[in-house]
Structures are given as C-alpha cells and as structure tokens.
Amino acid sequence: MAQLLARRRMTRSFDGTPVDSDWLDDLCATALWSPTAGNCAGVRMYTVGAERVGAYFERATDAEWRERAARFEGLRRAGAVVVVTSRPQDYLDRYDESDKRASGLASRDAWRVPYWHTDAAMAAMSLLLLLEERGWSATLWGNFRHDGDVLAWIGAPDEALFGSILIGRADGGGVRPRSLDRDVPSRAARVRRVD
Ligand SMILES: Cc1cc2nc3c(=O)[nH]c(=O)nc-3n(C[C@H](O)[C@H](O)[C@H](O)COP(=O)(O)O)c2cc1C
C-alpha cells in the first residue's frame, strides 16, 4: 500500500487506449467499499466509456478553454471518465434518524464538514489507488465550474458533483502543471505530534 501511495501521481496526457466499461464498472463498485458516514452510502460513480469522452469534455469545459488549454489534447485521449457525485439529501435524512438526531445535522447548513463530500473524497481516493494497482493512470479534476451541465448530462441533476477521474494509459507527454513547482512543506513536516 505504501508503494502504491508513493507511485500514484496525476497523469494529464493519455495515449487513447480505451478502458473496458464492464471492468471499470466493477472497479468502481470495489472502490465503494470506502467508509461512508452513518452508512449513508450516498456516493455514486458514473462511468463514461472511451466513445463518450469527447461528449463529456463538451459539457465539462467550454470551447474557449478547449481551444486555449495546452493540456486538452492529452486529456481528450483519456480512455474513460468516472464522474463522482454524492446525494446530500441522503445524509440529511440519515442524520435525522433516531440514533443520529442529537447531532443536529438534519439541515444542510448545520454541517461544518459536509460528509457527502468527505465520502466522495474517500471513494475517489480508493478508485485512484485501485487504478494505480491495476496499471492505469488517472487524474482527478475537481469541481469548480460547469457542474450543472455535467450533472444534467449524466442524468443526476439533484446530486452534488465532487469531481471527475480521467483514466488512461500515460503517453509520457503533457505540460508540467505549475502546482508541482510549488515549494511546499515535506510530508514529514506536515505531521505534528501533540505533546
Ligand atoms: C480536490 C482536488 C482537486 C483537484 N483538481 C484538479 C484539477 O482540476 N485539475 C488538475 O489537473 N489536477 C487537479 N488535482 C490534482 C492536484 O493538482 C495534484 O494532486 C497535486 O498537484 C499533487 O500532484 P500528485 O497528485 O501528482 O502528487 C486535484 C486534486 C484534488 C485532491
């Protein structure tokens, strides 16, 4: 597991190899062994096969970005996409049940840490590690625009879009993201012992 964690790096340029859809559906179901608050099971994974990756990008990006972004060519050769969503209402309903009601979490604005996003992150990380284990590369795209269009396209307008995982075989190309050149504290320095 430590080796998998160390090896996994986001890949943003793929060679066009398609991902088998049945295999990917099974892998997503395995990823959903992830922890889920109150056993809400409120995360969903929508798999998009290679033949629909172009249609995904038409919803998830705009023409101006596709024209301008140096990394688009490499990304569009992804062999599949998994759109990870969650269902906030499932969490509100669950935390209004008798064993959870004392938490006071039956309304959406009561949550300091919205567990639907936490659960989605847990499941997304599980999928990233499973993909790494099976020899595939991937990148997680966060959700900061176009989420309404993507949710409508996958037929889940009432769900919350957590992010999309673009999957494929790395082709060794792509533009190095500026994020990786940031001077950040080492992993060890981010661990603090409380005395
Ligand atoms: C919540 C979240 C959102 C992210 N969104 C994007 C994104 O929109 N586009 C992208 O290229 N990478 C995205 N990343 C990947 C990060 O840039 C990447 O994890 C970070 O630079 C460290 O690189 P590494 O994962 O390869 O070690 C995201 C990662 C996380 C956890």
What does this structure look like?
It is a single chain. With 195 residues, the protein is of the alpha+beta class. It has a single domain (2-190), classed as NADH Oxidase, CATH 3.40.109. 35% of the residues lie in helices and 15% in strands. It has helices at 2-7, 21-31, 53-60, 63-68, 72-75, 88-94, 115-133, 147-154; strands at 43-49, 80-86, 137-142, 160-168. The chain has a four-stranded antiparallel beta sheet, with helices on both faces. The two termini are 29 Å apart. The model has no long low-confidence stretch (mean pLDDT 96). Bound molecules: flavin mononucleotide (FMN).
How much helicity do the residues have? 25-40%
Question: In what range is the share of β-strand residues?
Answer: 5-15%
Cα shape: globular
Number of strands: 4
CATH class: Alpha Beta
CATH architecture: 3-Layer(aba) Sandwich
* CATH T-level topology: NADH Oxidase
Query: Please, how many domains?
Result: 1
Bound compounds, each kind once, are:
flavin mononucleotide
Oligomer: single chain
Q: Let me know the average pLDDT.
A: 96
How would you write the strand order of the largest sheet?
A: 1-2-4-3
First-residue to last-residue Cα separation: 29 Å
What is the tally of helical segments? 8
**Helix/strand order:** HHEHHHEHHEHE
Spans of at least 5 consecutive residues whose pLDDT stays below 50 are none
